[in-house]
Amino acid sequence: MIKIGLIGFGAIGQCVIATLPKALTEEYQVVGILTRKNIDNLVNDISSYTNIDQLLAQHPDIIVECAGHDAVKEYGCKILAANISLVISSIGALADSHLYEQLKHASTNSQAKIYLPAGAIGGIDALVAAKLGGLNEVTYTMRKPPKAWLGTVAEALVDLNGLQQAEVIFSGSAGEAATLYPKNTNVTATIALAGLGFEETKVQLIADPEIEDNIHEIWVSGETGSFTIVLAGKPSSYNPKTSALTAFSVTNCVANFGSSIII
Ligand SMILES: NC(=O)C1=CN([C@@H]2O[C@H](COP(=O)(O)OP(=O)(O)OC[C@H]3O[C@@H](n4cnc5c(N)ncnc54)[C@H](O)[C@@H]3O)[C@@H](O)[C@H]2O)C=CC1
Ligand SMILES: O=C([O-])CC(=O)C(=O)O
After folding, report:
1. What is the average pLDDT across 228-242?
2. Rounded to whole angstroms, how far apart are CA atoms 173 and 167?
3. Where is the Aspartate/homoserine dehydrogenase NAD-binding domain (predicted)?
4. Element (H or E) spanning 49, and its range?
């Protein structure tokens, strides 16, 4: 029996709960969800908690963070120190090298593992493999409709509501992108960690009024060859910033945790 906890019950959290029955062949129980405020009649009588200690007291084997960078900072080490494995959706939090080292240290000292899902993108398997062969260049372009950038620093750069043509709202390193756009560009951190790191991974972010999907383009060149991956992800109907694929990728991490065959 796998005991599962969640942090956050928004677009990703709700889809994870709905998808677990399809993804897990082993017996499991969702022992609780940490939310900002108590939610009555959550789903299937799952309890919601507002304090991490209440969730830890349910002795989950694995906790899925799908809340935001602050949640990783606030709870990550405590979860790992309690020997509970952690799936991190908000991978951009790891652009903070101090936090990265703290989490790694907490995991090394316990038997708990940190799972980083591919999330909204794909090709991470090819990228980590190409890294071992030797990488020369990794570039990533994210194109999202203007409404996906509302509530971000892009609002001060362009008129998102009146945008007539595609505008580059950021060009720079993966580390800067992940920090400047914490709710939108966690995948830049995933690509950086799998490949050339936060400084060397080049990122461009674009607000495009002519598209409806979130379009992710990864270009990699190295000693083993080169590849380009383009994903046109449907945005979650609950949160336009988040691609619908993300929650399924996160759920698959939980399935891998419980499975003897990892894919
Ligand atoms: N790796 C990837 O490909 C992706 C990662 N993400 C990350 O996942 C996070 C969640 O995404 P969504 O579900 O779309 O966001 P959402 O905004 O729909 O839901 C997040 C929920 O978490 C709750 N929450 C926030 N901080 C919390 C805390 N400290 N404790 C308890 N609850 C807290 C919020 O109240 C909200 O209900 C994003 O903020 C982003 O960091 C999002 C999309 C893709
Ligand atoms: O879901 C997406 O398209 C990517 C995203 O928001 C993130 O990386 O934080």
Report:
1. 96
2. 18
3. 8-117
4. strand 48-49
pLDDT in tens, 236-262: 999 999 999 999 999 999 999 989 999
CATH architecture for the domain at 124-236: 2-Layer Sandwich (3.30)
d(CA 128, CA 122): 12
| Beta carbons within 10 angstroms of residue 111's beta carbon | 10
* Helices within the chain (DSSP H only): 11-23, 52-56, 69-81, 97-109, 124-133, 174-180, 186-194, 197-200, 245-258
CA 101 distance to own-chain centroid = 18
Q: Where are the alpha helices (DSSP H) in 50-110?
A: 52-56, 69-81, 97-109
Domain ranges within the chain, ordered by starting residue: 2-119+245-258, 124-236
Sign of CA dihedral 183, 39, 1, 57: positive
143 Cα–ligand 2 center, Å: 11
For the segment 85-97, the average pLDDT, to the nearest whole number, is: 98
- Residue 250 CA to ligand 2 center (angstroms) comes to 12
**Predicted local confidence at residue 41, as pLDDT:** 58
| Assigned fold of 2-119+245-258 | Rossmann fold (3.40.50)
Instruction: Please give the pLDDT value at position 53.
Output: 98
Q: Which atom of ligand 2 is nearest to the CA of 236?
A: 1
Q: Which of 17, 101, 22 is nearest to 66 (CA)?
A: 17
Please check the confidence at residue 43 and state whether its pLDDT lies above 90: no
Average pLDDT (17-21) is 96
